């Protein structure tokens, strides 16, 4: 397995990362804009991409904007909004056919970078700010997206567990913001904030395909019309909050099935040398169908419809999710705690070790088949300030022993138990 080597440079105080490769038939372009999670900015930050996708100075109408993508041989354009540790990330993505595969007089890569650059930095304006018609219609779009979280009780319980666990931390905030704050946004105020965000936030542009850094830098220079004074950086020292007395939160809504979630502090992040061990810990505990939670809580005891764990390596938090019958709350909590105790005791079978290593390393190998996954993996390094490669992480995971996992388990502390149940009396 080969190491992947990105060529790196800076232009307009924007970091540019290029992976020259003939592995794919399309160019993958990804732009990351990061912002610290804050109560007063999380909603306008989340809302900005929704407005930007409606039109640019060259293509002011949404129909023209979308037709331009069709002109670029059906290029794809989209965005994501999510959390990475205490940062809110905006990611704009574009994929388009490589120049070698089309008979076009102009470079598709050049046109693609020009399009995404204009979409981000030269939006359609009315009276010197965002067009009110786009702002108002997209408010409804984002409002529906936020409301859908409440309607999806699995997602809702996961978010509420984090919210309660991290009450005093930025991480409590949902990356899409709140409906209340959304309603207060104005076209003029949003545009003022948007300009501040682009000038002060770290921006990273990735290009994967048959090209080079030398070719891409001048394209970024001409397509991203920003006069930035700083490159901006990510603070990798998040500071772990100590887990004290376990918080138990019970919330009542109209549900037929109980949602039992737990939040644990691992005191281990992506930059930590122990990160590969914590990947194994989460995998053995609840990452896969062979894991302890799935096997013991769901299969043996038939207590849960689903039971799994998820590690956020940028925050150092591990969450457990399970769906249970309302009457099984106490029993389910007890058996989940027994699985945590088994990890502390080093009660891990050879089969659990082998299968977990196989699953993790297979997932890591597979990400090398996707340009955007390669980009995402590399951006983790930028965010965390470490240099990991897929082969080095696979090697580190393969080297993890039971005693390593046991030592890691002793660091993990249960912080919060959250239970979403129906409105009836008694569990």
Automatic annotation (TrEMBL):
<dbReference type="InterPro" id="IPR050361">
    <property type="entry name" value="MPP/UQCRC_Complex"/>
</dbReference>
<dbReference type="InterPro" id="IPR011249">
    <property type="entry name" value="Metalloenz_LuxS/M16"/>
</dbReference>
<protein>
    <submittedName>
        <fullName>Insulinase family protein</fullName>
    </submittedName>
</protein>
<dbReference type="InterPro" id="IPR007863">
    <property type="entry name" value="Peptidase_M16_C"/>
</dbReference>
<dbReference type="Pfam" id="PF05193">
    <property type="entry name" value="Peptidase_M16_C"/>
</dbReference>
<feature type="domain" description="Peptidase M16 C-terminal">
    <location>
        <begin position="185"/>
        <end position="358"/>
    </location>
</feature>
């Amino acid at each position: 397995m080969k190491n992947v080597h990105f060529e790196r440079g800076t232009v307009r105080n924007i970091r540019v990362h290029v992976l020259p490769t003939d592995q794919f038939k399309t160019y993958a372009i990804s732009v990351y804009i990061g912002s610290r999670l804050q109560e007063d900015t999380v909603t306008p930050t989340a809302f900005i991409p929704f407005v930007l996708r409606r039109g640019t100075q060259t293509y002011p109408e949404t129909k023209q904007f979308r037709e331009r993508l069709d002109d670029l041989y059906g290029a794809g354009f989209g965005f994501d909004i999510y959390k990475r540790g205490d940062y809110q990330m905006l990611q704009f993505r574009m994929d388009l056919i490589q120049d070698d595969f089309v008979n076009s007089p102009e470079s598709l890569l050049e046109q693609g970078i020009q399009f995404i650059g204009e979409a981000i930095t030269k939006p359609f304006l009315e009276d010197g700010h965002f067009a009110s018609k786009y702002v108002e219609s997209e408010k409804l779009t984002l409002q529906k997206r936020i409301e859908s979280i409440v309607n999806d009780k699995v997602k809702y319980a996961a978010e509420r567990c984090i919210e309660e666990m991290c009450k005093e931390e930025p991480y409590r905030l949902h990356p899409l913001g709140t409906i209340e704050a959304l309603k207060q946004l104005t076209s003029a105020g949003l545009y003022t904030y948007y300009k501040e965000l682009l000038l002060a936030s770290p921006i990273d542009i990735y290009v994967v395909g048959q090209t080079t850094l030398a070719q891409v830098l001048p394209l970024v220079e001409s397509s991203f019309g920003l006069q930035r004074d700083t490159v901006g950086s990510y603070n990798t020292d998040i500071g772990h909050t100590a887990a004290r007395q376990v918080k138990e939160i019970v919330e009542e809504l109209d549900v037929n099935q109980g949602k039992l979630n737990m939040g644990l502090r691992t005191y281990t992040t992506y930059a930590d040398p122990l990160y590969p061990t914590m990947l194994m810990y989460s995998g053995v505990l609840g990452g896969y169908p062979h894991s302890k939670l799935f096997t013991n809580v769901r299969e043996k005891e038939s207590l849960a419809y689903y039971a799994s764990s998820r590690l956020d390596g940028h925050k150092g938090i591990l969450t457990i999710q399970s769906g249970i019958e309302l009457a099984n709350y106490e029993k389910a909590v007890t058996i989940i705690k027994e699985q945590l105790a088994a990890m502390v005791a080093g009660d891990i079978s050879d089969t659990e070790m082998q299968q977990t290593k196989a699953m993790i390393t297979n997932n890591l190998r597979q990400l090398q088949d996707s340009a955007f996954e390669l980009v995402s993996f590399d951006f983790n390094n930028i965010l965390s300030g470490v240099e990991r490669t897929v082969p080095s992480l696979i090697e580190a995971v393969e080297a993890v022993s039971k005693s390593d996992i046991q030592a890691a388990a002793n660091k993990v502390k249960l912080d919060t138990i959250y239970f979403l149940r129906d409105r009836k009396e008694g569990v």
